[in-house]
Amino acid sequence: MAIAGVVLVLGLVAGFLVWSKPMDPYVKGVLELTGDVDRGGDIFLMNCSTCHGFDATGRVGPSLQGVGDRKSQQQLIHQVVSGKTPPMPQFQPDTQDMADLLSYLQTL
Ligand code: HEC
After folding, report:
1. How many CB atoms lie within 10 A of CB 75?
2. Cα of 42 from ligand 1 centre, angstroms
3. Mutation test of ligand 1: which of 45, 46, 52 has the most ligand atoms closer than 8 Å to its C-beta?
4. Measuring CA to CA, which of 37, 40, 42, 84 is 20 to 30 A from 11?
């Protein structure tokens, strides 16, 4: 019983830490903007289509169809800017470009 109590408390603390983590200012900046889907599509063609295909159905990288349903906005931003999943490179779009790209990804 004591162990269950400790596990429960640790779980609550961990949950609180994740929940209370302040949002990254870059992510916050992106989410405050309204993305332009057409501009986002152009950015996608120039930067992403070599790997994900012109219609985002996948080449070297996976198909991105329906990716907006699978991933949250924050996960999508993280995917683009983190560089954590090579061979996908790390991109550093300014917040407006990222907002545009995000709005395009959500139409897929
Ligand atoms: C050099 C090839 C390459 C380029 C360029 C590239 N990607 Fe990727 N991308 C990948 C690969 C490979 C993966 C799979 C990574 C993994 O999960 O291991 C991926 C994964 C993703 C995912 C996650 C898909 C999912 O279903 O979880 C998203 C979203 C994504 N890329 C978006 C983009 C966007 C937007 C761009 C342009 C800014 C881009 N990628 C440019 C290769 C690339």
Report:
1. 10
2. 16
3. 52
4. 84
CATH number of 24-105: 1.10.760.10
23 CA distance to ligand 1 middle (Å): 23
Residue 7 token pair: 């596990």
Q: What are the helix (H) ranges across the chain?
A: 2-20, 25-32, 37-47, 49-52, 67-70, 73-82, 95-105
Q: Which two tokens stand for residue 104?
A: 């395009």
Compute, in degrees rounded to 10, the torsion defined by CA atoms 95, 100, 105, 108: 170
Structure tokens that stand for 41 in this block: 């599509």
Give the distance from CA 29 to its chain's centroid. 14
Give the pLDDT confidence of 25-76 residue by residue, as tens digits.
999 999 999 999 999 999 999 999 999 999 999 999 999 999 999 999 999 9
pTM, full prediction = 0.84
